[in-house]
Amino acid sequence: MFSVSLAYLPILAVGSLFYLYESKAISFTFAVFGVILSWIIFLKAIFNIYPQFIAISIDSYPISVVFAFFMFGFCYVIRNKLCSPRIITWIALSSYSIYLWHGVIALPLQGILLPFLGFPFSLIISLSMLALISTISYNYIEKPCLRFAKKLI
Hints:
By secondary structure, this protein is mostly helical. Helix content is about 85%, strand content about 0%.
């Protein structure tokens, strides 16, 4: 799992490149070059770890990352049209908690509910529980820990 986690570092670099581009610290050309290079490094790393996941299938790592990129792009384009700034701020602040809890809450719950409720309802319930647990986790664990860490510094 450690090697898989390291393989995702180029994807985190893409987020940093996007931030740097948005803050006018780098050019569009540099950002695009960096995104392409990051994607190549990611694919190479994943292929070295799990060659079978390079095949185009719904559960492959590259497909999941492409889906995440499209979701990010879609949300970025509609950010001022369909979503309130409060929702975007909540997602941004809760993203780490969402990441931590999605495999513990949303995925197992969806697996349990799917046979009984079908995909749409099990997805809605799973995401709602994930949002609730992530909000609680952010407010009562993450924020106090961040405040404590700032006091130490």
